[in-house]
Amino acid sequence: MKAYVVDKYKKKGALRLAELPDPQVQNGDVLVRVHATAVNLLDSKVRDGEFKIFLPYRPPFVLGHDVAGTVIKVGAGVSRFKVGDEVYARPRDHRVGTFAEFIAIHQDDVATKPRTLTMEDASSIPLVALTAWQALVEVAKVKPGQKVFIQAGSGGVGTIAIQLAKHLGATVATTTSAKNAALVKSLGADVVIDYTSQDFEKVLSGYDVVLNSQDPKTLAKSLNVLKPGGHLVSISGPPDPAFAKDLGLNALLKLVVRLLSRSVRKKATKRGVDYSFLFMRADGRQLEEIAKLIDSGALRPVVDKVFPFNKTPEALAYVETGRAKGKVVIKVL
């Protein structure tokens, strides 16, 4: 099969198109013919080696964390899917690699593709929707009537998180540029802050939940918009002790993680709010619930551009500019 591989960890490193053996189907796996995949900033970070401590991929490896396609083979023990099923997924860590013609995925990570979406639109959903779901539903437990601040509302996670928060009954604030204000309002944002001319810390107060996806300075300011008992959930770090425990890190790495997040945890405690770091995980059952929301009209994908498979490096470079609205998709088949 053809796939784009990373030969070595390298900042802005080039992806190489390679001919690789077809994936091996293990017990519980489905083999998926990739129709479309999507690009995430996570792909750049994995390529650059930013997560080598937590995700020690051994080069050469294939990038890609989103997929929509067709099941062409099932392994022993597979009960949820059959050949011919149209599916979508975010493969689990250590088994990613959707910038390819085929991928073997454990059935627990896979869900039936939303019937109302094309393959291209469906491929844009898994990683960002699982991130939003796990942040807002699992961790923050957003309830009707609460106030939720979602940063970078026109980005991949932001466009889905706004819609999900509104579906959960929250009042939603977000940041974006003036040119994207209409987009985030159409997704359900009630309060739109132009980050180029406004300081959200001076505009917002008394919020129940903040979903942080930006830099440490923004993280620190986010604490100040929360009311006592509020919850700051960060998907951009720093990792916290709970994350280290869940990952089963050794004592030294647990200490490193504790030190990395000590400042923000101390400030959160002082303000009477909770801090959580979220590194989303694969979950097919959650994707089934998300598909229901999509097919009911509660959520819709936002796709900026679709690139052909032979332009995968250009698609990744475009995402790295930070200008994409929603997701960038790669059409493989």
Automatic annotation (TrEMBL):
Spell out the PANTHER family in the cross-references. Answer: ALCOHOL DEHYDROGENASE RELATED (PTHR11695), RETICULON-4-INTERACTING PROTEIN 1, MITOCHONDRIAL (PTHR11695:SF294)
What organism is recorded for this protein? Rhizobium anhuiense
Residues annotated as coiled-coil are none
Domain Enoyl reductase (ER), which positions?
Answer: 13-330
Question: What is the protein's given name?
Answer: NADPH:quinone oxidoreductase
Xref: SUPFAM superfamilies:
GroES-like (SSF50129), NAD(P)-binding Rossmann-fold domains (SSF51735)
Task: Offer one Pfam family short name for this entry.
Answer: ADH_zinc_N_2
